[in-house]
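Job type: complex structure
Entries:
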Amino acid sequence: AQKVTQAQTEISVVEKEDVTLDCVYETRDTTYYLFWYKQPPSGELVFLIRRNSFDEQNEISGRYSWNFQKSTSSFNFTITASQVVDSAVYFCALSEEASSNTGKLIFGQGTTLQVKP
Amino acid sequence: AAGVIQSPRHLIKEKRETATLKCYPIPRHDTVYWYQQGPGQDPQFLISFYEKMQSDKGSIPDRFSAQQFSDYHSELNMSSLELGDSALYFCASTMGQKLRSYTFGSGTRLTVV
């Protein structure tokens, strides 16, 4: 069965601090995709990254970086030098790409990040 | 670039009424997914369609039905609305059920009063 756990419900930091959002997943498949989405107060789901299970290379995009570790089934997200505009709910999601899978995403519970000025 | 279009953006209905949400996928996308996100919750998968056939089903109430039309747009029909149906409803589309091109629409906010 698929499961995604984001143990941090809420995180509050002061602007310019670094912050890491944790994501732990469970899957029996060897081929799967992991996603991170940002949901600002306006409500839309903003795509941040998609990573497949065969690519364990960490990725950096500006102030954002992702640490994918299959050994611990984790896909953590770090924001460096946080800004007020980073305040949002962040979701980690998983989808298995087995032949029987139809592409639905399983989301974690979300982490609400508040960045204070 | 064209995105996934959902209409309406906001909808207010009374209890026991019916609502229809529409989703227009990205051109050439043949797969559509519907998700429901209650207040303070994560998005939950409802139902999906691939090439106009239902491909998967999640925790979708019997009061809800959906279909995908010949032009690949999809409609989610919700009857006998309840207060608990108040939520954000997202549609996503992709090509061939592949995750590489997965794209969400901006959502429809349904409020049942």
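Summary: Chain A has a mean pLDDT of 93. The first strand of chain A starts at residue 3 and ends at 5.
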